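Look over this one:
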Amino acid sequence: MDIIGEGRDDAEYDEDYTDAVLYGQEWEGRSFVRCDFSDADLRGLVTVGCTFTECVFDRADLGESAHRTSAFRSCRFERAVLSSASFTSCTLLGSVFVECGMRPVTFEETDLTLVGWTGARLPGIDLRGARLREANLAGADLSGANLSGAELTGARLLETNLKGADLRGARLDARTLIGADLAGARVDLDTAVAFAAAHGLQVG
């Protein structure tokens, strides 16, 4: 399959890709700024080293798409489909996901700093070592998720479902766990002690 946009350095600004059928295409090194991909068919799309800045993907279908070393900065995904999509060595800095179909979705060595996953349904997701600094995970279902070694500093975890999640080695402020559901979650000793202290308990 031909690589689309190979060697292009110029960004596309404010382009309208609404309802576009871009199924199975391969893009390399393309750059999009404030472009609208609402309702676009992006199934099976492959991006390598592409940049999307403040783009809109409302109701877009990105099922089975694959993204490597691509950046989605401050983008919006509302009711988009990301089933079986994969992101490898990407950044989703500041992007917001609202009522999206995201099962299953794969994030490998991807920066999720400041991502908005309010109310997202991601039970059992593998986020080992993920960078989720200051992410908004309020109300998200991360039950059974593997968050071992994840960077969760400053993350919002109010009413987050972390039942059965693995939080061992995760870097976080134990006080943020107070509003989360932690039934059956696994934590390391330091986090357990800090969590107890945050609840006003004296350990030892």
Q: What stands out?
A: The domain at 1-111 is CATH 2.160.20.80 (Pectate Lyase C-like). DSSP finds one helix and twelve strands in the chain. The longest strand covers residues 85-88.
